[in-house]
């Protein structure tokens, strides 16, 4: 168990967190739109500002074009798997890659909402049954022409191994969208995200949607556990949010095997840390807590899900701290 001073002196952290958690959301009118790159693949913003660079007729035509709904690659329902070509494969760290797949048409969007996922399918030559696994894209839902996935390779993981072995020009069967927690601007005043490993991907999808929207004033607190510092996915993107929106976003990192110079949390995500940095449970539906990660994290923090459709009962640290089942969503 780590002490509060693992982040900074306990008194300073406590004062800062309490002030941060209790402040009313401030206007971010001067912040504009955040453009966050993932491993060199830019996440395009979904908000555009029309400027009168042409005639009124040209401006009206431009506005009409932007209002037209884009074609969707994934439409759900009876649509089967869509075969997508791998355009680019980039190494992020020792066991993680960024994979960029080309959508069927250049002007297409993925068709995903925030938050939602897709399922992938692969059947090797010596496999009796196809392997099906869910993944949450990390690209912006409005990104046109391509969709990005951050994939960690797990020992004896048939799908993650297959994805890491894919070469540009090869294809993967993907189907979606699979709806998760449907986000809308200002749905809650404060969102807390507790993630481990690649459980960070749905958290990024929600946070990116919040901070790219000038109308959304939601506060976000992230608690992110990993094995080593190199395993902290999207760290530059989270740091950019923290620097751009210091009154609305805070991130706390916890490492199993930290370097000697590490100033963040050490060990596992603890009840003490959550009590220190999370918003108060008494705030009801003003607060929402998202949890996503490996089985051990669910067991300790919130209890596991019974199925993709059944959230199960709330358990673990969040229950002990007084949060209700309705305040917690398990991705």
From TrEMBL:
InterPro entries associated with the record: CBR-like, Cbr1-like_FAD-bd_dom, FAD-bd_FR_type, Flavoprot_Pyr_Nucl_cyt_Rdtase, FNR_nucleotide-bd, OxRdtase_FAD/NAD-bd, Riboflavin_synthase-like_b-brl
GO biological process: ergosterol biosynthetic process
Gene3D superfamilies cross-referenced by the UniProt entry: Nucleotide-binding domain of ferredoxin-NADP reductase (FNR) module (3.40.50.80), Translation factors (2.40.30.10)
Enzyme Commission designation: 1.6.2.2
Subcellular location(s) of the protein: Mitochondrion outer membrane
Cofactor(s) the record lists: FAD
GO CC terms: mitochondrial outer membrane
Keyword annotations of the record: FAD, Flavoprotein, Membrane, Mitochondrion, Mitochondrion outer membrane, NAD, Oxidoreductase, Transmembrane, Transmembrane helix
Positions bound to FAD: 133-135, 150, 152, 159-160, 201
GO molecular function: cytochrome-b5 reductase activity, acting on NADH
Residue ranges annotated for the FAD-binding FR-type domain, each copy included: 79-184
Membrane topology: Single-pass membrane protein
Enzyme class per UniProt: oxidoreductase
Pfam families assigned to the protein according to its UniProt record, in alphabetical order: FAD_binding_6, NAD_binding_1
Catalysed reactions, semicolon-separated: 2 Fe(III)-[cytochrome b5] + NADH = 2 Fe(II)-[cytochrome b5] + NAD(+) + H(+)
PANTHER family documented for this protein: NADH-CYTOCHROME B5 REDUCTASE (PTHR19370), NADH-CYTOCHROME B5 REDUCTASE 2 (PTHR19370:SF171)
Family: Belongs to the flavoprotein pyridine nucleotide cytochrome reductase family.
Function field: May mediate the reduction of outer membrane cytochrome b5.
Protein name as catalogued: NADH-cytochrome b5 reductase
Organism name: Aaosphaeria arxii CBS 175.79
